[in-house]
Design brief:
homodimer, 355 residues, alpha+beta, 60s Ribosomal Protein L30, Chain: A, 2 domains, 7-stranded mixed beta sheet, 5-stranded mixed beta sheet, 9 helices, 24% strand, globular
Amino acid sequence: MSGADLAKGLACPVPLPADAGGTVLLGHGGGGRMTQQLIERVFLQAFKNPALEPLHDGATLPVLGGRLAFSTDAFVVRPLFFPGGNIGSLAVHGTVNDLAMCGARPLALSASFILEEGFPMADLKRIVTAMKEAAEEAGVSIVTGDTKVVDRGKGDGVFITTSGVGVIPEGVTIAPDRARPGDVVLVNGPIADHGIAILSVREGLEFDTTLESDSAALNGLVEAMLAAGGADVHVLRDPTRGGVASATNEIAVSSKVGIVLRETALPLREQVRGACAILGFDPLYVANEGKCLAFVAKERAAEVLQAMRAHPLGKDAVAIGEVVAANPGRVVMESRIGGRRIVDMLSGEQLPRIC
Amino acid sequence: MSGADLAKGLACPVPLPADAGGTVLLGHGGGGRMTQQLIERVFLQAFKNPALEPLHDGATLPVLGGRLAFSTDAFVVRPLFFPGGNIGSLAVHGTVNDLAMCGARPLALSASFILEEGFPMADLKRIVTAMKEAAEEAGVSIVTGDTKVVDRGKGDGVFITTSGVGVIPEGVTIAPDRARPGDVVLVNGPIADHGIAILSVREGLEFDTTLESDSAALNGLVEAMLAAGGADVHVLRDPTRGGVASATNEIAVSSKVGIVLRETALPLREQVRGACAILGFDPLYVANEGKCLAFVAKERAAEVLQAMRAHPLGKDAVAIGEVVAANPGRVVMESRIGGRRIVDMLSGEQLPRIC
């Protein structure tokens, strides 16, 4: 199956509960259209408030004369340990990145653990040690937490929810509705590594070299980008579940703009390209955990790109597309051979429990 | 089994992993000594930092020239729906209360959901609606969230983690190490309702009237208490998992003081007393979700008690004991017949998945 076919397949209607009927499906956790519909029809309807409305990676709160970013993420990844990290490091990186995508400097994290009875204490120690190391590397502290234990067969080893607070510096306004025609879309390196690394463990795929998850804390990189781009950095987003396709779609809708991506510009490791071809995955829909999309005003894009390349986590940064006025709410891919196809959101579940 | 027997039973040594060996047991989630040991030996060892150290219900963060409280709690209660609430209202109350116990005015909550594939959408709606109502009643907004779905048999319907941030007003310093000899111990009403309400559903116990959980948001009550007591309110603690016994033990250890409780003063509904007698539970160890222990300087205790009684959630408030210099780190109960017994922490697991 080619990428285009898969995209078409994903655009097909999926049975979705229009009201409160039905049951929760794996696809509701996929990070694509079904997740969005669950959020809109169940959560947003109930919790409606101005801070929640922008549907960013975190909320911005006016507090004590400044602005605070506040974010949360649950982690249920399978397997718990994978090349390049484990559920613990992922849980720290994920929430640090959500704060960074609000333009905030992460201040503190909380960690809540739901443990299954019988889970090996040694594995818990490894996970907690990875969290400590990831937090230290990102320069944040884990300041509060909670632990619950559920009976055997009612959990799956360990689930972790991390939340985080950060301070948004004055003058920084990053939001998913701030993309403007002319903005250049940047990414800090090859996409789809995390999803394919997880999948390769699950499926027992063998590569010449081990393919590692890109899981990393991006707050340092973002700080360098904001120092270079200032208020001309309009939108930041980490394309996790649902991949670059879903992340860009959400921004196109929020900002009421069109986004054009260039297939030839998309950075992709050869291993990942090969694995995607064999498995019928479109890398645009595959999760990343150490990647950041940035929408930057054209006149500052080169400076921001340079700042990214000067950072270890951005050395392979490139421009992958631009924002246009045409087709608001739509993402279009210019293919290798010059054709154009619509890149839809992920509709169902491509790869359950990827994060 | 009498309460005293149970307390003795609980004081017996329980096999505990001294290092990273062994596996997670249900008792590690009980909120008593095993939970404390897990926290000390696994989490604290890794995450050690000044904000985490006080082991309060939440962390206090200096930020933007003020002080922020930050807290998190995972909820895995069984059954999901119980008299007096459901997992959703409980998740909101729990985190609002953790913030209130830091003396903070709750500002915003996050909610992360781990859903099991196949969970009825209608039940999710009920839960989310209860969260909305509980949040409105407490005057806070749910501003950010996350949803993950795990495969059938790898979860248990729904787990919710809520986190919260709140602002600590100037002049307020509530901390578990601030209890002083002479302080009066107050509680805002009858204890053990939540645990017995949950248990009665699980065991199919019948009462003349339905026994409801006391689950409630205590921030309004705490605000009234602080208005009356100011800096003379030294410690606040909601005695959830592990009950009044574990909460007072933690405070006795943190503050290096003794605590004397008077059995005759402990407020207890007749139904709860009966259920505890039949089931062999000591109400001191049974969870509460709408109760608050306050340690207040003697000279202001009457005023604070009066303020509590003027609030709907404190109309049955009473003094249940006092802080002494003798036996630092110990909680002692003066029994009905004049005897004294040591009240130890909950050692194992009394009632799994109570919150």
